[in-house]
Amino acid sequence: EIVPNDFECTPLEQMFVIQGQNSSGKTCYSISILLCILLNQIGMKIPARNAQIPIFHSLQIRKDVQDNMFMGMSSFIQHMSDVGEILQDISKNSEKHHFVFFDELASSTNSTEGVALCESILIHLVKQNVTCITSTHYKLRKDVTKQLKMLVTGVSERSDDMKPNFKVVNGSSLSNTLHSNAIDFVCRNTLLVDIF
Q: Which helix (H) or strand (E) holds 31?
């Protein structure tokens, strides 16, 4: 069943952080927006009731971090190298209108460093006046979230079969009550029950 979700971006709200628990639809929702932007860039019809999407000078997309054994790069080094190239390109062409997409920004390191990197990168992009969508599991500091448009996916209670509602709502940040169901899922679906 399709769950319709709206997306609104204004000149005052250009930085979007999509948060949610595992399997709540963060990536699906953000890629749906990305595909609409890509279709618009090449002059194709957008699958929406109505849409007004600007033409961007550049689209910078970072998804699916993997190791590069041939270059001797871990997934973290590969991810940060790609992010660094994106940030450099934006800085060199700061007069242009850029769109940046990150799926799980800075997720390939420990959570303390990941939060710090994620916040720093997002604040840098805010200062560059870039339109950006990223998804994350990280809970960002309140002083950082005031500069970002926070969206939260799947916030309703989940059923026993772990199915989220995939509805996207405005939110200031992940609440302390919104937790990952990763351990519950592993316990229900694997032989690892005894270790938890």
A: helix 26-41
pLDDT tens digits along 80-107: 888 899 999 999 988 889 999 998 888 8
Hey, what's the torsion of the CAs at 32, 34, 38, 41, to 10 degrees?
120
180, 22 in Cβ contact below 8 A? yes
130: nearest Cα among 107, 103, 142, 148? 148
**What is the pTM for the complete model shown?**
0.77
Kindly provide the b/e burial profile for residues 106-118, where b requires at least 16 CB atoms within 10 angstroms of the residue's own CB: bbbbeeeebbebb
CA distance 6 to 3: 10
pLDDT (0 to 100) of residue 172: 54
Q: Which two tokens stand for residue 94?
A: 């700061």
The SS3 assignment for 11 reads coil
- Indicate the pLDDT class of residue 56, thresholds 50, 70 and 90: very high
Q: Which of 158, 162, 138 is nearest to 150 (CA)?
A: 138
CA distances from 176 to 33, 64, 132, 187 (A): 27, 28, 25, 22
Is residue 10 over pLDDT 50? yes
Give the residue ranges of DSSP H helices in 43-191.
Answer: 75-92, 111-127, 142-145, 182-189
**Quick check: 23 and 162 in contact, CB under 8 A?**
yes
